[in-house]
Design brief:
The protein is of the alpha/beta class. Helices cover 44% and strands 17% of the residues. Strand 10 (173-177), helix 6 and strand 11 (194-197) form a beta-alpha-beta unit. Helix 7 packs across helix 8 (229-244), helix 12 packs across helix 21 and helix 13 crosses helix 21 (539-565). It starts with a helix and ends with a helix.
Amino acid sequence: MSKASSETPLMQQHRAIKQKYPDAILLFRVGDFYETFGDDAVKASAVLGITLTKRNNGDANSSQLAGFPHHALDTYLHKLVKAGYRVAICDQLEDPKLAKGIVKRGVTELVTPGIATNDKLLEHNSNNFLAAVHFDGDVLGVAFLDISTGEFFVAEGNAEYIDKLLQSLKPAEVVYQRSYQKQFKELFGNKFYTYTMEAWLFEEAFATESLLKHFQVHSLKGYGVENLHTGIVAAGAILYYLKETEHPNLQHITSVQRMEKDDYLWMDRFTIRNLELLNAGSGDGNCLLKVLDNTVSPMGARMLKRWVVLPLKDIQKINERLDTVEHFIMQTDIRKQLSIAIKQCGDVERLVGKLPMKKINPREVLQLAKGLQQVEHIKLQLSISNNDYLKRLADALNPCHFIIEKIIAEINENTPIAINKGGVVNKGVNETLDELRQIASGGKDFLLNIQQREAEQTGISSLKISFNNVFGYYLEVTNLHKSKVPAEWIRKQTLANAERYITPELKEYEEKIMGAEDKILAIEIDVYNKLLLALQDYIAPIQVNGNVLAILDCLLCFADNALQYQYKKPQLHEGLALELKESRHPVIERTLPPGENYIANDIFLSPEEQQIIILTGPNMSGKSAILRQTALITLMAHIGSFVPAASAKVPLTDKIFTRVGASDNLSGGESTFMVEMNETASIINNISERSLVLLDEIGRGTSTYDGISIAWSIVEFLHNSPASPKTLFATHYHELNELEEKLALVKNYHVTNKEIANKIIFLRKLAPGGSTHSFGIHVAKMAGMPPKLIERANDILKQLEAKHVNDEEETAESEQPIVNSKNTRKAVKSLSTPQVQLSIFDAHSQTFEDIRKLLAAIDINRLTPMEALLKLQEIKEKIRD
């Protein structure tokens, strides 16, 4: 006998459905439970912490089994999806009471990380994007869709641009063509949850047809995407994927927006990481988004996140935002009223996203109506403003009066969450419903009347009417009075001390009241579904409302930040000079201890006067903070925010590049230095005159002389480049201070400090001129290194400094005129043997022949405390030898 023939009909049905979804965990509805079988059960029990058992399938074989009550689906579903599993929900498609044979079942929804509409699966302040990537030679297409809000974006470009978008928007899932698995991993890494699809889905004709059919249009020109051929293919793949995962109701996806690279200030993924825009370098630290985000709505929080990674490049649009923020700062009452109103609107975008799938509950529908009522007040406030941008936003708002009135009229103010709980629809909406409710609610009085009448007629004083699921309503008579029971009563049950009877009148009433409850629920569901159908016509205008509310929320947030943290309005201009007065780091200043003020600094960069600043100073003095705050202030200005500075003249910037800190990519086979050079090469090859370049400790990943050589040549290249990008270069290589004398547009600055009683005090103030000391040993002492180790480090430092002086004297002597044979031999030797000295011009990769020269090559001051400890131990062992 085959395994299939020995299975029960239920398990045969399960196997047939599972074959259609082999890569998903199948939640199989059986009665009041969702069950999982076999491998699915093993995975589910491990993730959910539920019991794994075995059941008999009708033969000697047994199957592993794990299940949970159907009403706990929301609780368990999000855990499975968060764990990275695709989950197919298989429901009963007919009433088991009416089924002939086995109940018909089918998958009603396939949930994956990128296709989530359940609130527990979503972060309220982040989009949950599903992305698709299409490979087509050098030009790649990408599309992003948030099914929970209906936001749909499409773009195309080279691999670097697509990588930046993926890193910025952080999709929960990426789908792409199956034959490009190797290329995807090479270009974008393995940090994304991915799903691959067949090649025939990635055809432009198929994709175009899918989009035209979905939007019910004859051309995509109205969306401005008709020329994004690879982007269209990616967008079509997303629509197909949604239908394949049982998501046919997509009426809330009403448009697709083009993401054009030239519209936004460019930042590569290194810059987004280095500037800590979305995530802090340390797990519990602050990032720019965290300190800027004081929005009051989920829509605003999601939009602000996109603004931060996609700053504007259109000066007119930027100034519109800045002027509006300034307007809100001046209008205190209006600002507060608008914030309160937006907060009361709730998450309009995600509420309307639930409409097509009918996953919106009655309370959420009521919240939608209350939100639309607030939209009416907001529209009125904006329309009387003297700000043109706010007036345009007011024109875009649509309070949707008809649907508000309909919802308020039909839905009970105190409605339960679930429609099947009853009491959702108001009185007066449906006449039949009101009559049936009267029957159901008047039942107690009716039964009491029967009980009193029958008690009087029969003389049974203890008579009572009760109800159970077996007999329905019944009359209960104690044994003391059973002789008084009329002949027409029908006995149904005998108890130890009583008898239970029914009467034709009771049965008739029972049928009436039980039918009324079923009919009440059916009518309420019908009224509610018709209301949801009426709401479908308002999806697009409500989505526009959500978008406008998000914009307002962000601008109000900027105004509040400016007032609370003393930010000032930046002056954007079409020139090239950057001038910041008393600038501060927006993140660091918010994490300082109470009472401690951030030390503000002036920054001036100009291609005509001061194109490159070489910044030196002690370890921990704040060089990196000055670099980062310059970039963050430039970025904040381009998103329309006021900035942490007394004044800021910010040139329109097209690209911000950073190379900050050292990090290994060992899993990718790349060392610290290789990563550093890759990132720096990306900068060198993409600069323009409107770029801002920040370089921190370039070359520290290799030997001292190699590092100085590379750093020196990078500065020369940037200085002599026709693009002349504005550059801040922080370094430990004090030799680079010589460049100020050799290159006209290079200026030296240092971060000041005081040394008192062999202790260093960081003043964190920028001053002209270079620094000649790193104070590395002082930092090691502050880090808690043992006194003996610090003392030894100071000894070695003195030896190295003395050696350096001696080498310089010997070199100077070798350059004297040849006057005797001894000097001749020295000169000949100096010519035949390359001299190793601390000079950029002799910095070659050489093998040192003795320990003294090895010591001369090690710059202890630039090392971290731990590196210093290891180097000192290595040197000590060599000295012993």
